[in-house]
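Handout, page 2. Input:
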Amino acid sequence: MVLLLGNYAPDRQQSMLRFSTMLLEGLRAAGIAAELITPQPFFGNFHGAGGAVAKWLAYFDKFLLFPWRLKARLAMGERASNAPSERVSLVHICDHSNAVYVRRCQPLPVVVTCHDLLAVRGALGDETDCPASATGNILQRWILRGLQRASAVACVSQATLADAQRLIASSSSKPVLSVATLGLNYPYRKLPAHEVSSRLEAQKALDASKPFVLHVGSNLKRKNRDGVMRIFARTRKEWDGLLVFAGESLPSDLRSLGEELEISARIVEIAHPEGPLLEALYNRATAFIYPSRFEGFGWPIAEAQACGCPVICGDTGPLPEVAGEAGLIHPTDDEDAFASDILRLTDAAERERWSQKSLRNAERFSTERMVAHYIEIYRSLVPRL
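Output:
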């Protein structure tokens, strides 16, 4: 039995929640007995708590209550009265930010998926747009010690592996490091035009008859949504398209920037679209813009390409690695180059050329291949699995 440790749902780390579910389903489909457990909100259920209070209540749930639940689950299969199938042979921590639980799982082998080390690096003084508070510094160093104690650390990209080799492999225990490229957490694909129109027609804020460029993500500084706005503003006199932000709603400072740039009337916000709607947006978009400053992987790039959407992205970290030869890649601060490529892709033939490249590159992001790689890691540690 492989025990997967997932994320605390109230933290709303949607990509991590999707990853653990995707891995659970993939392992079971491959014939591997697997179970997923997550920290459950108890203190976090107290209504009205916000800010620092909510954060500390969440800490109580994650770091005081959950370790006891984890200990009880690991002990369950050791009781003589229980079925052997309940016995945990290996623990897989699906998000490196939960590496604090590694010590609680030993002496069992522990695999950790490392999505990025940006927060850890920020706590160590690197510039990653991830500043840490005093308690955050303590937590990130705790996470790093957990990673150093793991049996194996699977990094989602070569860029993250390079960080891991510098920060993790220097420890005396030296866990086995490898790259396990992410698969897609939804079966994104090229859709017929009529299907795209059907899915978009309910979006009253979006005039689907108009072309648009798309950004998917959050308002974290490293996502560079202000840069996306400035890039789009450079095209407004030559192209009558829209700018669609999918994900978190824009905060007041970014809405003010839109007014300053005189593009507010052409910005559309679609809050947290589910897979089918997001798939339609990728299919219809003229281009996907991703000038992110720091990433561990860049899942939206792979999602967009799987839908045949051309990608214009930055040249930092893993973004060129994920985009491959299908990406239109520029230095993140070269906003003129991003804008020029948007205008370039308004030509139907040019867009189709990059769309076909995108579809070919997206074939690399196979969930089945990712799961198979994890099974190889498991069996290197527990041959009988």
